[in-house]
Amino acid sequence: MLVIFLTLPHKILASPLPDSVTAPLDDYRHFIMPTGKPIHGGYVGFWELAFVNAGIGFGNISFSGGITVLPTVAIRSQFAFLQGKATLADEGGISFAVGANLLRLTSDFLYLHAFASATMEMQNETRYTGLLFLKAYGDPYPTIYVYPFSPPPFTFSYGGVLGAGIGFDTPIKGVPNTRIVAEIWNHDLSTPSKIALLFAVRVENERFSSDFGFMYFSLPLLAPVANFVWRF
What we know:
Elements: H1 2-7, H2 19-22, E1 42-47, E2 51-58, E3 61-68, E4 79-91, E5 94-105, E6 110-121, E7 127-137, E8 143-146, E9 154-157, E10 162-171, E11 178-186, E12 195-204, E13 208-217, E14 221-231
Antiparallel strand pairs: 1-2, 1-14, 2-3, 3-4, 4-5, 5-6, 6-7, 7-10, 8-9, 10-11, 11-12, 12-13, 13-14
């Protein structure tokens, strides 16, 4: 997947413009998926009104992290992550990055992931990203228990070693400062049916963006999603 993105002929990009001109304001991500672009400056975000996150960029090196603040869930069952990303190439509408993150799925399950992402940007500001990630450390097929303050706990599985994702966003024609954002994830490529689909609409200005949409899980489950980000 990543090879395809890196080897697509540049002629499909109609007269490529400098990246700083065509890139959207949140070009380091789609909804949550990291693109090949670095973080410019910094940001503070609030995802689903329950996940506080922040990030900062130093040139082509980006760092981010976050933690859930679910009021009815015990501290040991809160989720958190730390992530670093290095943009290795960014030219002619194509960017490529590698990175790693430490994911805490409750205090009993720590995971280390390595990932690579490649992003293609079109002149009309439409972007496509392919992402591959590897579970480098952690139980490959766990059953994770989340303990609220009032029992009983609920469980979910996080199986697989190799996963992938595809991200997409594009401006809405005729509606200034809005974008359509979509992602598809599979955290276990050995089971193609384990997918998550996300669709949202973003409203943004120079400092603030907000996303509203829905996410479908193959459990099956359909859930609303929202994301608020302030850039500095």
